[in-house]
Every structure is written in C-alpha cells, then in structure tokens.
Design goal:
It is a single chain. Helix content is about 30%, strand content about 25%. It is of the alpha/beta class. It has one domain: Rossmann fold. Strands 1-7-6-2-5-4-3 form a seven-stranded mixed beta sheet. Helix 4 links the parallel strand 4 and strand 5. Helix 2 packs across helix 3.
C-alpha cells in the first residue's frame, strides 16, 4: 500500500464555501489525459455535502445552469469539451439490477468522469474508485454547537494518486495551503 492510500488527505470544510472551493480545486487538478474513465466515490451521511461537492466540481468543469441531483433518475450526464461526466446517486437504488439497466460499463472509457454518490449501495456493479472522498459531519460542542465537515480524500489507484498529487502540487504548502483554500 502506498502512502497516498494509507494516509488520506484530510481537509476541514467549515462552511459551504469550503466545499465549493474543494470541488473547484478538484476540477482544476483533474487528470484529463487518463487512459481510462476516472471514478470518484462520494461517501458520507445524508446532508454531508456529497451533492454540493459534485455540483461545485461540475460547475468548475464548465457546466452552466442548474446541476440536478440524480436522486430519482439515478444518473445525470453532462457533455463538456472532451469530457463526459456521469453523476450517479444510488441512495434510492432498490435493487442492483436498476444500475445494470443504465449500461454503465459501455460508457467507461477515456474522457469519462464518473461521480458516484452512495457507492456502497451497489459495490459489486461499480468499477473501482480512483478517488474516494468521504465527507463527515462533526459537531463542535460549546455554548452554541457548530457544525463543520471534514473531507478525507484517498487515492487507491495510479490515476487517483496522480489526481491527488496534482491537487496538492497546485498548492505549494500542500495540506495546510489546501485547508486555507477551502476554509
């Protein structure tokens, strides 16, 4: 196991603006020359910011207008210059066969970015992730409890490690600079 797999990049997301900034940073560092489809798993409880992060990434990639949540349709697709983005939300998946009907395997090729919310609902039918992003809601105790989020980014594949390395390289002080970016 590599260091990138063992030690995820941990970021504090203290406001929605931080989640939006992280999505934009991920879009800017996307390895567009990947030889295969890039797969991102977005994991976390309801309300942890998975869809917000996906929307920010899509807007930063050039999607204009409304980015709809694929909660009921299972998938929304976006054709961008040289990139097809498939945004899946498997929360309402009733049975794995529903995912097979999307013919997802036929679309997995270079120039495709697959964003998957709730991948744990059909792990046997999904390609392995290049980048796992786990969003966690934390409550800070005090006179007025405050909510914050953390994002743990783990890169289990060579393409994911390249993406994470590019993300960190764009910010010379690495993790502390990224935390300033998203705070």
């Amino acid at each position: 196991m590599t260091e990138a797999q063992e030690t995820p990049l941990q970021l504090q997301l203290d406001a929605e603006a931080a989640t939006l900034a992280l999505g934009a940073a991920l879009a800017r560092s996307l390895p567009r020359a990947a030889p295969e489809a890039l797969v991102v798993y977005l994991q976390g409880d309801l309300g942890s910011g998975k869809t917000t992060l996906a929307r920010a990434l899509l807007h930063a990639l050039g999607v204009s207008g409304t980015v709809r949540s694929p909660s009921y349709t299972l998938v929304e697709s976006y054709e961008l210059a040289g990139l097809l983005v498939l945004h899946l939300d498997l929360y309402r998946l009733r049975e794995p066969g529903e995912l097979e009907q999307l013919a997802l395997r036929d679309q997995l090729r270079a120039g495709v970015l697959l964003l998957v919310e709730w991948p744990e609902r059909a792990p046997e039918l999904l390609p392995a992730a290049d980048l796992n992003i786990e969003l966690v809601i934390a409550t800070a105790e005090g006179a007025i409890p405050q909510l914050s989020r953390t994002a743990g980014l783990r890169a289990p594949s060579p393409a994911g490690r390249l993406w994470l390395a590019e993300l960190e390289a764009r910010h010379p002080e690495n993790r502390s600079e990224l935390n300033r970016l998203v705070l």
